[in-house]
Each structure stands twice: as structure tokens, then as C-alpha cells.
């Protein structure tokens, strides 16, 4: 326990660094948990104006796991620059419990302010200065004679004291603040881990705070236990040595640690044995594939840590199988399958799929990429590169890839003949002109607009009634890719009519077409049965066609029923009256 007299010279930078490290990182501090009774609190403002308590007091703390007898011991006080004397000591008796406190009552101040102290373990009459002074704990009732007195157990110099431990004295006290030793690991007093932090540096070990007197009757406050830490988990091939590292374990009090390793669980058939099970670093050979559960417990001689556990896994690398390359039509849903992936030990695998390359402009995304069989839509023609990463429980991974090619969809096109003068007696011949950029076409689907369909490549069709029909074709390639529908309209005129004008369909529901064959321009007039004109249109010299959407000039749909129409030619003359039926 080194002491310094009048240690107020500038301190070297290394000491400042040490102090910062001590408080910021207790595990690495060059400090220790005390191994003998220490002075844990000093209060010299008792009974003064604004005092917290009526009496001065000195509190001791036992940082060991066994009771300590105080018979024949004493606490002594000296002024900041004074010497210890027989008139300023209090003899002690009894014992201090393991990790417990011991309260020595001092003199009362003249103002009488403050609350009474808890019933002290020893009552004395020491009158302590509030802001500066020296307090010593000795193994005898003889005054401390010097800094090297063999009976000296602990000393606290505070405020302007000329004698103190370390580089500087503890802070100044006051009528409302005592000097309190830090708790385990340099924590603030009152943390519940005992006031046994002793770096032999009064300026670092003590803080000024509101007084908290404790007696031997209060519950013990053991130091914080050490903490066992095992290094990163291990994954090794079977038959490989596993090196264990517990050197990251630490003790809040900075004390040396004892280590105890053990194998809690091993795979069936394993005869693994730990080497150096009491050293910071141990090892064993993972002689069987599987999981080895390792446990480490550390002790600082006072308390034992909670067990730390870690798994070491002996495993071979898994095998990833992303499946065969696929050829699909653009727009198809691609189903992936990684179920043939496997782990040599039979352990379960986790899956992670990703789209590595996409055609330019593609917005394809994987649905549920962590499934064994996710899917995506090949929204554009081109190549999609897909990657599968499988991971076993040991964290070992394997990768496989496949390529999906999306072929462009076919483009449907067709023509028909004759293109005009089609009547119900006409045989209409349809010719397929569809094409595919990559794949052969294998199927065609025609819809003729009158409810009839065909699967021939070049069908022939007759219409049963006059009217306007929309013909639709879809072509399919050998991958099942279907072209978008292609449509063309054709007009079937009534058969055997010599009239200048005909129409179709009849009856009409949504629209009707008028077919004019006159050689000069004309006017079409449509009347309802009451003689009211409901529609009028100019007709170009024939052959020409005019479509009517069955609405009036104001855009209102005409009512269902019978309508009459005529064509008046520019040069004179009119057609016979024709009938048109509208149904809704």
C-alpha cells in the first residue's frame, strides 16, 4: 500500500490514461478487489448546519467471503496536516460479516442538524472535519506512527490532506456529502456489489455523495461475480482439433481467474477429451461429426461465474443442387426446386435463392426466396441466372446456379379472302401468317365472331347471316407460349339483294352497318314508325359503308322496335323503304 506525501505535483500523462481506462473498462484495469477490511465511507459533517446526520461516522467493509474479527483494531483520525495520536482513536470490538459493513459512530456537531444515525456497531467520540482530513484503520490501538507502520490496514486522505494513497487525495467532503469507496469494478457506490474497490488511489477509489451509513445488520453485498466468455463458435471438419479460447473472461475487480472447462454434450460414439481444462485456452479433437456443447466457468477466488456455453460443430460442407436449367415461354411462372440439396450428416439445411442476372428492363423478383421451392415470373424474354446458397447448422455453405431462358412469345397474324362482297353463301378462306422468333408453332386457335371456332392452321368458314364480325387468332409454340390475340373485322352482306342499300345485322342490338352500292352520293334517312327522323347520314358513292351506333343525334339510344329507312340520291330518286329491327 504505497503512500504519497504532499503529492500535488503534475501527474504524467500515463497516470491520466490509467485513470480513464480504470473507469471506462474495469475488465482491463490494473486494479484489484480488496482482500482485507477497508474504510468504505467517511462522514465529518454530522450535526453541523445543513448536515444529513447528527453524528460523524466511519464505515468499514469486509470484501472477503469470511467474517473478520476486529478485536484489538482501531480507527484513527488526524487533521489534514496533522499526525495520529492516542486521543483521536476509537478501539473496535466484535467482527465484521463476510461482504458486510461495520459502522463506527463519531462525535455530534454543535448545531444538532440532521437525522439520527442507525444504531452503530461501535460508538466513539471522534470528531472529523467535513472537508479535509486523514482516517486510518489499524490492527492495534496504538497510534499509526508512519506510512510504513506494519499495523496500518487502510488509510484515506481527503480534501487538503497531506497524506493519502496514490497520486491524489479523495475529494472534499461537506456537511451533506461523505467520501464513499467505489463498488466492484469501479462502479458508483450503492450499486449493490460492495464497496471493496481498491486501486490504492484515494482520488480514484472515492467519490463524494450523499451519506449512506450501513451496519453489520444490513444485508451483505458481495462483489460482482466474474464473467466467463468463450470465443467465437467453431465449425471444423470431423477429426479436426477444436481450440477453445476463454481469455476474454474477466473479473469486475480485476482479480486473476481460475478456469474450469468441460464437455457437456458430445455426438454419439465420441470419446473426445479436453486438453488443459483448467487453462484460459483448452482444446479437444472433434472425433465424430455432430455438435459438441462446451462449458466454461471462471472464479476469482471469491465468487464463481455463471457458466458460459458454446457449440462446436464438426461438419462437412453441404451439397447444393439448384436443379436443371429451364426453358420457358416469356411470362411463365418459373418454379425452382432445391430439394435435392443435402448435408452429409443428414442435418437440415436453410435455403437462400437470388436472381443474379436478369434481362434488361425485367422487374422479376423471387417470392419467398428462403423456401426450398420458390417461384418467379419470367416477365421478359431473355436469360435469368438463379443462385442457390444452402447453409447447414454448422454455418457451412454451398452454392449452385441454374439458367432459365424465356423464349419470346409468338406473334399471330392472318389474312382472309375474298376481302369484299362476302355474303352468307361465300366460303371465306383464312390464311395463317403467324411467326415465332425461336420456337416452332404447334397450335392455332381461331374465333370467327359468330360463336364458331377452329383449331386448323388455315381454316375455311361460312357465315350464316349478314353482319360485321371480328375474327381472332392466337398461335401457340412448342413451349406452350401463346401469342396475344390478333383481330381483324369482316363484313358479311345480305345475300341476293338488288337494293341500293342493305344493312346488317338485322335485328341490330348495339350497332348496324349500311352498305350502299349507288354510283353517286346519297343521303340515308332513318325514321321510327311514327315518321320521326331519328338518324341521317351522307353516303359516298358506292360501294361504301356507314356504321350507326343506334343513338339519336343527341346521343340517346333509340328505343327497341321497328324502323324504316330510305336512301335519297343527289341526282334524284330514292331507294325502296327498307325495314330495320332494333332489339335491346
Describe, in plain words, how this protein is organized in 3D:
Pfam families: K319L-like_PKD (PF22352), LTD (PF00932), PKD_4 (PF18911). Residues 164-241 are annotated as: Disordered. Residues 26-160 form the LTD domain. It is a single chain. The chain is mostly beta strands and 584 residues long. The protein folds into five domains: 3-209, Immunoglobulin-like, CATH 2.60.40.1260; 234-314, Immunoglobulin-like (Sandwich), CATH 2.60.40; 326-396, Immunoglobulin-like; 414-492, Immunoglobulin-like, CATH 2.60.40; 501-582, Immunoglobulin-like (Sandwich). 3% of the residues lie in helices and 39% in strands. The protein is built from two helices and 42 strands. It has a six-stranded mixed sheet with strand order 10-9-4-3-14-16. The chain has a four-stranded antiparallel sheet with strand order 7-6-11-12, with no helix packed on it. Strands 17-22-21-19 form a four-stranded mixed sheet, with no helix packed on it. A hairpin with a 4-residue loop joins strand 38 (522-528) and strand 39 (533-539). The radius of gyration is 51 Å and the shape is elongated. The N and C termini lie far apart (112 Å).
